[in-house]
């Protein structure tokens, strides 16, 4: 039986193969007599799961050895506090505000940093474009510069990470990649720290992944909770406190699935990137070619993962969503702060799912346009 296509922004669809494997191992993980949720995080069974997940993520995203991978809890919002607690040294920090999530991040940082400088903002365009890095005004001596590389609500994405050194800025780049982690390769030479919740592209909610360059660890403010001090987390291999064991297991299964994906000659993340480009092109092309639907984001800044769109006749919104549900196209309602619709097309969404949505968009427009 074919499952419906789930366009949720997160928690979001998980590859069916991953769910099936987890179901098959639910009561007895590989002959251990225990399900993964029942295992001690310090036992040899879970340690092997943890090591495979970490190695899988490192290899998938080609993370260099000078970066630590931390499996934490608290989600992206907790990292908005944990990052300044660890990296700000109570000095000034810079933010580039490109939508709701970076806006939230800079507000939270004000509790911990002596000064927050907005180095650039897309607010004047209502976050439909990204400010060109050449126009950014980073401050001198900032502890870091924070960006959200994919704004889940506004639907804007940096298709390339900024090269801060080329802008004359030597602050490390902090990247919130919550909503497009593992959808494309990462140029780690430009990154100091990247963080993201797992619940969009990687697995269930409850796991937060932090990738941090070794030299940035060990400067936490005295008030930083021990469980959130990157030094303690790193030195204890993410087991200073009990880690989100189920999330780590599911992430490992997803990394394994991702590594096996191919598109022509490409495999792993390169294949996912190609597939994600094709999916986004199909959906945006349909929206742009229609009289009924529209997307407000400037084409070069459009997210490949989160596609917000609107019906010119908003009175049709409920009928649109009801018809979509009937066709097995779930969770297309837009975020409450912006309204309209949003299709999130993360890694687990196949091209066939986007094609099914596009077919529905055409049919609905024919019936109501
Ligand atoms: N950053 C981004 C880009 C997000 O999309 C989200 C969640 N939608 C968050 C941060 C917050 O994550 P969490 O709810 O896991 O704290």
TrEMBL record:
The highest taxon in the source lineage is Bacteria
Q: Which cofactor does it need?
A: pyridoxal 5'-phosphate
- Describe how the cofactor binds: Binds 1 pyridoxal phosphate per subunit.
Q: Which residue positions does N6-(pyridoxal phosphate)lysine occur at?
A: 200
Q: Can you tell me which residues bind L-glutamate?
A: 42
Tell me the compartments it is located in: Cytoplasm
Its Gene Ontology cellular component terms are: cytoplasm
Task: Check the record and name the PROSITE patterns matching this protein.
Answer: AA_TRANSFER_CLASS_5
Q: Which NCBIfam families match?
A: PRK05355.1 (NF003764), serC_1 (TIGR01364)
Listed name of the protein: Phosphoserine aminotransferase
Native species: Simplicispira suum
Q: What would be the name of the gene that encodes this protein?
A: serC
């Amino acid at each position: 039986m074919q499952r419906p296509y789930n366009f949720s922004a997160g928690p979001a669809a998980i590859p069916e193969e991953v769910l099936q494997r987890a179901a098959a191992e639910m009561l007895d993980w590989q002959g251990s007599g225990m399900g993964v949720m029942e295992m001690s995080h310090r036992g040899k069974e879970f340690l092997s799961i943890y090591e495979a997940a970490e190695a899988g993520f490192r290899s998938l995203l080609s993370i260099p050895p000078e970066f630590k991978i931390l499996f934490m809890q608290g989600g992206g919002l907790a990292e908005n506090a944990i990052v300044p607690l660890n990296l700000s040294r109570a000095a000034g920090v810079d933010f580039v505000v490109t939508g709701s999530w970076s806006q939230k991040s800079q507000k939270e940082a004000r509790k911990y940093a002596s000064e927050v400088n907005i180095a650039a903002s897309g607010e004047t365009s209502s976050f439909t474009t990204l400010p060109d890095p050449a126009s950014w005004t980073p401050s001198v001596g900032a502890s870091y510069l924070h960006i959200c590389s994919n704004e889940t609500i506004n639907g804007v994405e940096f298709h390339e990470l900024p090269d801060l050194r080329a802008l004359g800025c030597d602050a490390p780049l902090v990247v919130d990649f919550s909503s497009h982690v593992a959808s494309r390769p990462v140029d780690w030479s430009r990154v100091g720290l990247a963080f993201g919740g797992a619940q969009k592209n990687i697995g269930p909610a409850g796991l937060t992944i932090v990738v941090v360059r070794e030299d940035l660890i060990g400067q936490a403010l005295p008030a930083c909770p021990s469980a959130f001090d990157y030094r303690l987390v790193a030195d204890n291999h993410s087991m200073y406190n009990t880690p989100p064991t189920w999330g780590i297991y599911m992430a490992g299964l997803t990394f394994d699935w991702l590594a096996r994906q191919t598109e022509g000659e490409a495999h792993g993340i390169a294949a996912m990137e190609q597939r994600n480009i094709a999916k986004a092109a199909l959906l945006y092309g349909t929206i742009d070619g229609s009289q009924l639907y529209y997307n407000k984001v400037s084409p070069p800044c459009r997210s490949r993962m989160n596609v917000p769109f609107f019906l010119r006749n908003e009175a049709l919104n409920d009928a649109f969503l009801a018809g979509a549900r009937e066709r097995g196209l779930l969770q297309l309602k837009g975020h409450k702060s912006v309204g309209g619709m949003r299709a999130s097309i993360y890694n687990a969404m196949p091209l066939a799912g986007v094609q099914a949505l596009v077919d529905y968009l055409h049919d609905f427009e024919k019936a109501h346009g």
